[in-house]
Here is the input.
Amino acid sequence: MPLNFQQVILTLQQFWAERGCVLWQPYYTQVGAGTMNPATFLRVLGPEPWNVAYVEPSIRPDDGRYGENPNRFQQHYQFQVILKPDPGNPQEIYLDSLKAIGIDPRQHDIRFVEDNWEQPAISAWGLGWEVWLDGQEITQFTYFQQVGGVTLDPVAVEITYGLERILIGLHNVKAAWELPWTETITYGEVRRQEEFEHSKYYYEVGDVQAMREVFERFEREAEACLANGLVVPAHDYLLKCNHTFNILDARGAVGVTERQGYFRRMREIARRVGEAYLEQRKALEYPLLKEQGTEKKGIGNGASTARSPLPTPSAPLPFLLEIGTEELPAADMDTALSQLRERVPALLKELSLEHGSVNIEGTPRRLVVSIDTLSPRQPDREDLVKGPPADKAFDKDGIALPAAMGFAKKNGVKTTDLQVREQDGGKYVFAVVSQKGRPTPDVLAEVLPKLIESIKFEKSMRWLPASRRAENDPGAAFSRPIRWLVALLGDIVIPFEYAGVLSGNTTRGLRPYDSPEIMIPSANKYENVIREAGILLNKEGRKASIVEQVNQSAVLVGGEALIEEGLLNEVSNLIEMPTAVMGGFDREYLSLPREVLISVMKKHQRYFPVQKNGKLLSHFIAIRNGDDIGIDLVRQGNEHVLGARFADANFFVREDLRQPLEAYRPGLSKLIFQTKLGSMLDKSERMLKLSAQIAKMLELDEVQLLNLQRATYLSKADLVTQMVMEMTSLQGIIGREYALRSGEQKEVAEAIGEQFLPVPTSKVGVALALADRIDSLVGLFAAGLAPTGTKDPFGLRRAAIGVVQPLIEHNISFDLSEAIQKAAKLQPIEVKVEVQAQILEFIAGRLKVVLNDAGYKHDVVEAVLAAQSKNPASAAQAVKQLQVWVEREDWNSILSGFARCVRILRSQSKDPGSRTVTESQIIEAEEKNLYEAIRSTVHRAPSTVDELLNTVVALIPSINAFFDKVLVIAEDETIKQNRLALVEEIANLSTGVADLSKLEGF
Amino acid sequence: MPLNFQQVILTLQQFWAERGCVLWQPYYTQVGAGTMNPATFLRVLGPEPWNVAYVEPSIRPDDGRYGENPNRFQQHYQFQVILKPDPGNPQEIYLDSLKAIGIDPRQHDIRFVEDNWEQPAISAWGLGWEVWLDGQEITQFTYFQQVGGVTLDPVAVEITYGLERILIGLHNVKAAWELPWTETITYGEVRRQEEFEHSKYYYEVGDVQAMREVFERFEREAEACLANGLVVPAHDYLLKCNHTFNILDARGAVGVTERQGYFRRMREIARRVGEAYLEQRKALEYPLLKEQGTEKKGIGNGASTARSPLPTPSAPLPFLLEIGTEELPAADMDTALSQLRERVPALLKELSLEHGSVNIEGTPRRLVVSIDTLSPRQPDREDLVKGPPADKAFDKDGIALPAAMGFAKKNGVKTTDLQVREQDGGKYVFAVVSQKGRPTPDVLAEVLPKLIESIKFEKSMRWLPASRRAENDPGAAFSRPIRWLVALLGDIVIPFEYAGVLSGNTTRGLRPYDSPEIMIPSANKYENVIREAGILLNKEGRKASIVEQVNQSAVLVGGEALIEEGLLNEVSNLIEMPTAVMGGFDREYLSLPREVLISVMKKHQRYFPVQKNGKLLSHFIAIRNGDDIGIDLVRQGNEHVLGARFADANFFVREDLRQPLEAYRPGLSKLIFQTKLGSMLDKSERMLKLSAQIAKMLELDEVQLLNLQRATYLSKADLVTQMVMEMTSLQGIIGREYALRSGEQKEVAEAIGEQFLPVPTSKVGVALALADRIDSLVGLFAAGLAPTGTKDPFGLRRAAIGVVQPLIEHNISFDLSEAIQKAAKLQPIEVKVEVQAQILEFIAGRLKVVLNDAGYKHDVVEAVLAAQSKNPASAAQAVKQLQVWVEREDWNSILSGFARCVRILRSQSKDPGSRTVTESQIIEAEEKNLYEAIRSTVHRAPSTVDELLNTVVALIPSINAFFDKVLVIAEDETIKQNRLALVEEIANLSTGVADLSKLEGF
Here is the structure.
């Protein structure tokens, strides 16, 4: 019989107490996680050691499911452990704790899945993992990097067990409610009724106004506490603010901007609490630090300081470097491999080390560099080193002056060996420095740490405590902690230390086999050793294996697997030994929207969905890390998890569908769009008016207009459905789905669904998207929220692109400036003319990016946009055409002909357009010829680039003849002006089409 | 090495888990005690079984001591256990748990000290004990009787360990801060800094207005939850209200009346929460009940149902009944003993059982009835039973009618044996019924349960679960649970069952010896057995032993013990084997006010103080239950406790004395006296004005007036000092002390100290007390808060007595009606004339009680009060005099002489006082004689009873002669009226002195 709920807690308490943890208690005010308990939040700050373990019944109002979900509740029991500093093997200790409560890693699939933890309410972040047990997240494992805005040193390891989920895995029950709390009482008997009640309270009963007021009061109390230096009381009120906010949030009462405001306020308090705590501990002289002793070790440990001289190989040898890490995130693994692929050959070249083929491989736990053969030593070489100018080095008599002596000494040569050579028109002293090639082992011992250090990640972490670092050394930074290093040249261990780890010849095996230490006799044996350990080192090999297994599995149920490259790549980066596990789920869930099903399977679970004839089957394929021992347990676990996730989605959809989509619209009044711009309902009302005007601009027919109006009316309603509140990425998708199920027109539903696509397919969809995006741009610019620098909290750059792209792709002519003007009139705040111009310019900027990204030449894009940026579609057409023209062989002559007209006008001061051609004043033949050519060619102002340039081409001979023969700048002012007027007629042809002067070669 | 803090918790968790408890977690909102956690508060309600154990870090803001007190903190760790139903031996299980954590009862003094737990905020109460470990309260042990206004069935046993105090005992450290939390970290390192911070927050920083508002919001949330049937969320908000109230309270912001209001509101929610929970569980059909099976046992268990016939003794035998209980409260033991002393002989008489001497003894754990000899059986006897009237029983022919037949059958006689006898003037049928005496064992088996049941206590409790009771039987009620019964007649066990316990011949020994079971071979061996077990059964014996030991101990330190009878009596009721333990405390505490020291030692600790030449020494004497093994540990423990208590008092006094007493006065504005009547400061201001007027009425001299004004000004200031807030009973005492230390006049200080005495010694003290009490009476009556029935929340009856008594004892003439009128003018609300009259009447009522209680005859008191109730002192004098008069031998003649005058006037209709005597119309000699007697005797209206009656006595001969000879009711109207006028002059003499017509014999 597996341990019951309370036995698991007792066992974990005992386990961690034996490992030196203070056993602490749950906090006396509601917290969303054990992290918020001051035993974590405060004690992780500062240099003092702190090891603690405690249960935390964590309260998250919006996770409430009325007791209906098998493993999602507004309250769940966490078991929280903090280890500060990092003990060096926290993952292994953690896995031991799982064994202590009866989870045998051999029988399950235990995985460390990337999780970059961030808690904006307390200005905290860290890197680590979700630990999965058969697909179920049972633990969060984080190396805290920052808390309360303070960078942690030492870093603290946080291990947060999700007790219910662990017990579900242990007991293989369908829902937490069935878990035994004691021998005779179930978890459900103790908890289920109150779960229902709290859910109802948080979702339906809590008084929004009262909670807002309470938040204010608590915030002021926190501030009063801080003003009096009361750290823990201030923190308490921060927690109370947080919980109060969570109630408001669960009630759906917090808009986007308002949320930011609340977070900002909480973050500010968190920051001040953290600071105050640090100051306090400093003033107390870090009592816990003294107690533990301040003994610091220098770099390296005893073993490495007394190093015997390295042998020098006599012949080329194979080389192996294995960087053993805790589980790397999928993307980090890729980025590390590609850096190594670039860096290693370059490094060998720099080092002048001859080598055979270089092979870079990796799994989540190891980055491997192997080199077929590596020269036993560097070749000797001579370098010519430049010294001071000759006349400063030697006097007239050739006697060495101090400059020469210094230079010679520095380079280890005699002054008499210095040579004088000419360089860059001067005479300089040179030394010929012979450099003896060093044995490869010595070179490697020196460069390998640097090689590892050179690997950079988008987000990296530190983990080494000060006691294991040199003074002022911040410690190694890496994607995840490095735990072992193998460096072998043949069978010679290349000794070095990095990140507190000494290199050696011992690797570690598969996680599910308990990561056994395995000795590698020599570099060329590595591949065998690893293969025998069951590890598929080659990523493509893992991918192929996954694809094969997944396909085979799908066939078994008569379907085909949906294998998306992104997912395949990710999954192959998550395991070292892939084994496909096919599982099923309740067919009733197939009634959920397809996107929901797929999104849950792929995004949340990294499963491959299975379909048949384009319809999903009630199966999924998971990839386990390890072999097939205990595979049934693994399957059941994964099935349970997916079932729970689908139950959750089902819960939302079912709850949501109690009313038609339309019924949600009024709820938008509770979502603040932006304080000055009102609620989402206000925005929706504006959109309704704007889309009617846009419809006219787009010349929609009557049916389209009706559909657009309805779609706009409903467009934002899904934001307040539970499903979207849960998975925001489903906005629009859910709107479409619910619209259909509410009996709306298909076109209406599609438009709703398309509004978030970069480019909606239907014209109605485009119109809706335009109304949405233009309203946002105009309103938010007017509210002073234009993007600055890298900050773009409202995604206005994306919105602008979203205006431009559909117009281009649908090739819809559209006057942005008119649309902006119309949208401006609808805003609740004034949108000044300057601001409107600014918005137009901003969109034009995005248009430019779009066009550049499409591969058009910069000058072409600039030329067109200088003339027409209000109308993206026509601008795009123009760019397309112009790009063809500039690529013509005769382009130079065309451009230069046209340019002659433009340039001569520029040299004259008179305003363009003020001149007119008077036929009677035409004197010369070429002049006349040009005049007539214009009259016969140009019948109206060209509206496209092609029209413009075809005209220009037709005129080129006449233009050239005119300029060659006729003196435009005649002495007679009248004649001169008449000739200029003629030229101007040509130059003006480009007006509104393109400013050709922006083109290269103009 | 004793267990550290977290090991104790782990051990207790393990211990109780093994005994079937659900291990629960601390609650997620601040609670003052584990009781408030729904795992207790809710789960103890209703019929379902529930056993639970958990840690509760309990928050009590006003226990904060800035981390300076060794064992008093705003947060302490409770370990809470609920056993429902009572397992039958919870004390023993509890003592086992102490052993499990390393507390050997043999080495310590573990005591169960009466504690009647009450929690008004949740309408809950229960009976039980504080468990003392060497004088330190380490556990509260309670049989819950009611929670949330709901009577519990089954009753739940609550065991609340105070973990810090237990560990202090275990580790014998000076303060909790020094306790090891783990091997390397102390309790202080984990908790002390935050203790300081919280204290500061609760006492100095918390925003009163904000907390009031938050309370309102939370209360409304609780109500909204209740309206939606959400029990736990409602309860959560009740807890939040409670904590918010506690903050307000710690800030000193809650006045007396306001407090009642807050409590009423919280109680109301608690009641509704309790009700809602019960309904909910019922609707759920009590899931935990089903699970455990509903198996019910009838009365008794297997052993008792098959009972073999009892032997009948052949000769008188000694008898013993021992009722073995859990520790009885001291007063309950006394009351039980006195009931048994009265009841047992009466019972034996009723049963016609001849017996030798009856001896009733008791200790906290046993009530013992022993009878030297008891007749082996009842004597036989004949009873004459009255039947129907003779004529209904027999017809004229003497044939028995149905009435006779029925009567005969009922009484087991033949109709022919019926006798006809006369009774009450009628003839009836009688049956002579012979009753055979029954053997004493049978009789006892029947009556002993009833005897036990007949013992009543002021507060009694139930504990038996329904499963061990007959249907509809509420179960036994007793002071504390009965756990064993010994009933022996000689060596015959008298078998019966009471309260689920079967009688037998096994008693239990001393607690410190683990209450071993001891067989009693026969009744007459009991005394020996008990003595050998070390138990002093006789209370006087215990008292004598205590006195002797205490005196001896005191002599050792050259002092004398202060042995107050009340304390001695109590202590002797708390132990079975007294052993004196002398301890000392830090001499610095001797600077605390004597009353504080004594009150702490006696009231809190039941120690005997030691003094020398009237000055306290730094010693105390405690009485241990048990022998002197481990006595040093016991001493140290007790010293620690007392030290902590003194440290606490010292803390208060030191904090308080940072400012002079005067500085506290403004703080009275925060104490509400009564909503309509304003704050205590308002009251104090009124008193200042009133006392000035009272001073005039009392004719104080100038110095007295000045002192009175100052004393009144300062009189209430001590109410807001910390020491008085902590021990309200010290009000006045602390005022006096602080006044002296603030440099006030001795007279001023004394008056402040005397204001709460029933009768102040100084005249200034009297004036102050009068001002206080009259203001309260007048104000609260006007506010509609006059006492009704048994309700007198403001103690107005006591206040009225407090007005009357000083006036009487100091014999101060004082016009109450004038004082009331003056006080009325000072009130912030109107005091109508009717209300003033009502107040006067109310005080007169108390005056009457006082005089009656003083032993004066009721009629005497009534006679005086009918004439003068406004002036208690003179009324008392009058009563005193009158009482002497009515006891005179010639009183009847005096009274009847006077009465003749009064009575004859009553028979005449004319208004009294409208007549006048005209000398010229006097005719008869006796008439003339009386007229002259009056003129020579009465020179002014008598003002005292003596004056009145001496006058009357002087007139009696003339009066009698007058009435004997003169026809008062003459035919001539003028003569008649003149004679009546003469009589009236005599009758009127008593006006304003006494209404003699109220006297017996008038």
